[in-house]
Amino acid sequence: MRGIIIFTITTSICYLSLLLPFGMSTEQSSANRGRSELEAARLAVIGDFKVGLDKLSREIELYQQVAATEQVAQLRQQHAATREAFKRVEWLLEYIDPTAVKRFINGAPLPKTEPHVPAIVIIEPSGLQRLDELVWEEEPDFAAVRKMLNKLQREYADLQLYARNRRLQHRQLFEALRLEVVRIFTLGVSGFDTPASGLAMTENLATLLAIDHVYDYYAESVEEQDAILHRRIVTALRRGEELLSGADFNTFNRLTFLTEVINPLTSGLVDAQELLEVEFSAAARNPVNPRAKLLFGADWLNADVYAKLPLSDYEAARVELGRLLFFDPILSTNNQRACASCHLPEKAFTDGSARSLALDREGTILRNSPTLINSVFAEKFFYDLREERLDRQIKHVVHDSLEFATDFIEIVEKLSQSEEYVALFRAAYPENPDYMLSRYSVSDALGRFVKSLRAHNSPFDRMARGEAAADSEVAAGFNLFMGKAACGTCHFAPTFSGLVPPYFRESESEVLGVPATKVWENAQIDSDLGRLTNSKPGDEAYFHAFSFKTPTVRNAALTAPYMHNGVYAELEEVMDFYNRGGGAGIGSFVDHQTLPPDALELDTEEIGSLITFMEALTDTSGLTKTPIHLPEFSVAEWNGRRIGGEY
User: Fold this and answer.
1) Same fold for the domain at 312-338+358-452 and the one at 459-615?
2) In terms of Cα–Cα distance, which of 638, 626, 514 is closest to 580?
């Protein structure tokens, strides 16, 4: 019997050795098989993508042929077919070359200026979004359509060639998928892509089906290792397809779509990427945290990237020093004005005035004081987008004769006369003794304090993450905000500002036609030219006249009055302005207004729901702490300063 057992074991070992490569364990063989399956999935995805690129090319050619017939119905039908073909490949095409797609294929139908050149070079809008407007005009200009299609065909041919030859790894495919999920929610269901045709929901379904098709190649590998994760992703995809099939744009429940489809997909794709041991991009270079799982999570955006102030070993000390400086009027020439004079914590770091009071109470400064909470999440700063660094904002305030009216030499000399301040700077900046107390450390500390003013736990945030039950009126307001009211096409989720998804790299400005005074007929536009006069040569284009940075509506319940000039005291008035079509609806018309001039036709109940939603974006928790005392100085008359300034 013992001999039979030995023979059986020996035979089994010999048999296994024939199955496995020499010296390879069962685990190694399984790992190799897994890698082979993943490689097959990658190649299949890229192969399908190339097929999709070819299909889009054919649809553009058909579009050109149909345009030559000048048949409106057929033209619109082919426009829809071309856009759907684009949506099938958008997820990876835009990842490969977002600049080309935005400029030539599917950018917003607004003029831009060529960046990084010494002259004003205007880039006229072109591509599918501009065609969406042209084709859905009451009487389409066929010559203009044909001209734009010819340009689209030329530009796409170059992009197609580049995209076909781009080598792509699993990491890039997973990143592109997650970005496309975000794009569906932040731009797709808001109708951003389809300004005239109303094809948003059909296109969103096509996009989600494309994501489903790509995931299917990885599904077996995911399911083998984590069946629960696989079911979570598949369930979300099926639910999304169910919700989008035949959906009506105005009644579509975007909050349900977020919690039941978008959240499981953004988190599930990250989990799948980790499960399959696919590498992640370096977080330090990305505005979007590569491992963040929820769009409305506190970790979705990387504040350090926006601030250009990487975390320091002395971060806490620098933030606290920045807080002291923020509330200390010693920074101003008369020792009476502080940063907190115009940015009160209890008002979400605004001041409640139409325009902030100027130095020595002599008039006001030019514009309304914006909130500082979440202000770090921006490409550029100030209403006119004149500053590109968070920590350099202070220099504008320091030098402005209406604000601090001083310079850094005077500020450093004053701070040097406080032993307490010197000790605090020494503790916060020990590695740079030459710059321990300087304009750089003062600016850095203030910048880090402002960077710390982040809030992502409003009642709506908790609903969006599925941590709290949805309030029906808040949900109704959110659906209007992202849908019929079109607020979400400028105030993009999740910041609800002009920070453009899904890359969140660009801050937009808009021309609204804001009036000088609150009148509802024959209004005169406010004389402030905004971005046009920000002293940035690249912004000196005609369409930047009266253009202002799109602010966040988070904490809007605390930040009245509204607009760059504080013309509207109540949110109801703001909504009335938008409901009429902005300046075009009240007489303060400017021909390059970027806000659509059409009336929104929102009723009183809908406006109430929108305001309820915006009120649910209130969150200042943990951010309103003020210093207990201010440092003492050797100059007696400087002591006894009021925390936050005299006025």
Assistant:
1) yes
2) 514
